[in-house]
Specification:
Length: about 475
């Protein structure tokens, strides 16, 4: 009974992705899209280029909040805290009671004892992959550039847990009205606020704990999924931070999935970087995932079979999520990622996967099959040269049997793999959510910085335009 419901849900999701895909390819952006695909395909893999120089603001400028200040709305509790803590009716596969503890970081992952260094066991949590709206809310309240006076703010943060609001209806028989209830009320609420009216929301930001497609319900009743929050006209000007963005919508910004690693200090990060750098990786690659034969374009079944076959010789480590509860985080996943040079990252129910981030934090080099899984998503976080930290094998070449994953990966020299791993290790501090109240430039700080710069640039431009008195239109 459960299985048939599950497969129906995935059929719906799959249909939605086909529709989205066909919409995208019928768009004039197609040439650019194809061009970028081609570009990625002709990249010579396993020849990492040297890292570009990184530009950073002098700390003095950064500390003075020169980029602006953020005002956090105090919403009625129905929009956030009331949505936390109702365990029973949330997504049964991905949610675990207690995830909202520790500011969204979850309980300590005691199951990792003996696998991660003992002095770092306290920084490993059972973090839910959909908890970023809780994490960001907790962190922004403590941010050094938070202001209590809206008139001095350049950024307005709306702490609405939109993912939790819709999450409890996604896997249940529910009406459109139920799915949209909180979103509709939220829009009514913000429209009463003077600072919203001043800008129509264009200096407002929200964090969505789930992928953007969960808030873009299609009108076709057969493809009914999620809420219509992001289809609402009022939301078109609002910047949204989300673990999966819609390509082509500049108001969507991709942020890393929360993983279980929450370092307290630079010293924690460095200790972990050394640990993964020196780990004795005895397998070439690993695959953590489940096969779903009812999803179109599913190469996961193929990858699972390949990996299982290669596991006989120790070349691949397989963690079959149909058997191991993967969403929960587990010692088997951690051991596989640490023990392998590469990790296979096919698309899942959507293009992105939390596993990409689990993989990189464990110091394994991700192998991508769709560009949208990573390269088109996390612009603020990843270097521009994908080949410097990952390997791309087109999914069509894999399903057509034109390329053997093992051969492609074995083709990378030890030196190349080492260079790629170093790039991955350099990325780690940027994709973690730290537990230090803001001293580190972690995923959260990078997001806040990015939003402030974006809004400041927009307001500077508006001011310039009004000074020169350029008529609009
Ligand atoms: C906000 O939107 C309303 C309705 O679309 C429009 O009349 C108004 O001019 C807008 N205000 C600003 C500041 O853009
Ligand atoms: C790595 O593990 C392999 C297999 O267990 C073992 O033979 C080898 O000695 C180990 N290497 C190091 C440097 O520990
Ligand atoms: C299974 O592995 C063996 C040995 O590595 C290989 O020769 C064979 O082609 C593999 N079969 C499949 C279906 O991958
Ligand atoms: C998640 O992991 C914890 C600890 O390993 C376990 O007690 C719990 O039952 C697991 N939950 C699920 C849904 O598998
Ligand atoms: C291995 O690398 C060589 C040289 O870079 C390339 O010509 C060849 O196609 C590669 N083989 C595979 C299976 O990727």
């Amino acid at each position: 009974m459960f299985t048939s419901k599950k497969s129906r849900t995935f059929q719906i999701i799959s249909n939605i992705f086909h529709l989205i895909h066909s919409q995208i390819t019928s768009h004039p952006r197609i040439s650019l899209f194809i061009f970028s695909l081609l570009l990625v395909q002709i990249l010579i893999f396993c020849s990492p280029s040297p890292p570009p120089p990184t530009v950073s603001l002098p700390p003095s400028l950064y500390d003075k909040c020169n980029e602006g200040k953020v005002y956090v709305y105090e919403l009625p509790t129905m929009f956030n805290s009331d949505l936390v803590g109702t365990c029973d009716d949330l997504d049964p596969w991905h949610w675990q009671c207690g995830v909202a503890t520790n500011g969204g970081y979850g309980l300590i992952a005691t199951e990792l004892a003996g696998i991660v260094p003992e002095n770092l066991l306290q920084v490993w949590h059972r973090t839910n992959q959909f908890s970023s709206e809780i994490i960001f809310h907790n962190r922004i309240l403590k941010h050094k550039c938070r202001t209590m006076e809206p008139e001095s703010a350049t950024v307005f943060y709306i702490p609405f847990y939109a993912g939790l609001a819709v999450g409890k209806y996604l896997f249940a028989d529910s009406t459109n009205e139920e799915r949209d209830f909180h979103a509709v009320k939220l829009i009514e609420w913000v429209q009463m606020q003077p600072y919203w009216r001043r800008s129509n929301g264009s200096d407002h930001v929200i964090v969505l704990g789930r992928i953007t497609w969960d808030f873009r319900r299609l009108t076709d009743p057969g493809k009914r999924w999620g809420s219509t929050f992001l289809n609402m006209p009022e939301m078109q000007t609002v910047t949204r931070l989300s673990i999966e963005r819609a390509p082509g919508d500049d108001h969507d910004v991709g942020i890393p999935y929360p993983t279980g690693f929450h370092p307290r200090s630079i010293a924690d990060i460095e200790a972990w970087q050394n640990f993964v750098r020196n780990y004795n990786r005895t397998s070439l690659f690993t695959f953590v995932g489940a096969a779903r034969d009812d999803v179109g374009d599913d190469i996961r079944g193929l990858l699972l079979r390949t990996c299982r076959n290669e596991s006989l010789s120790g070349t691949c480590r397989v963690v079959d999520c149909a058997v191991t509860p993967c969403a929960n985080g587990s010692s088997a996943i951690m051991e596989s990622l640490l023990g392998s040079e590469f990790c296979l990252q096919p698309r899942g129910d959507s293009f992105t996967r939390r596993s990409v981030f689990d993989c990189m934090i464990a110091g394994a080099v991700p192998v991508l099959f769709w560009t949208r899984t990573m390269y088109d998503q996390y612009e603020w976080y990843l270097p521009e040269e994908p080949e410097s930290y990952s390997v791309f094998i087109d999914h069509d070449d894999v399903s057509a049997g034109k390329k053997s994953i093992k051969e492609v990966l074995e083709n990378c020299s030890k030196e190349d793999v080492k260079k790629m791993r170093e790039r991955v290790i350099e990325i780690i501090p940027k994709i973690v959510y730290s537990d230090d109240n803001g001293g580190m430039k972690d995923a959260f700080e990078i997001a806040v910085d990015g939003v402030m710069r974006r809004f400041k640039a927009e307001s500077d431009q508006r001011r310039q335009e009004s000074e020169v008195n350029v008529p609009v239109n």
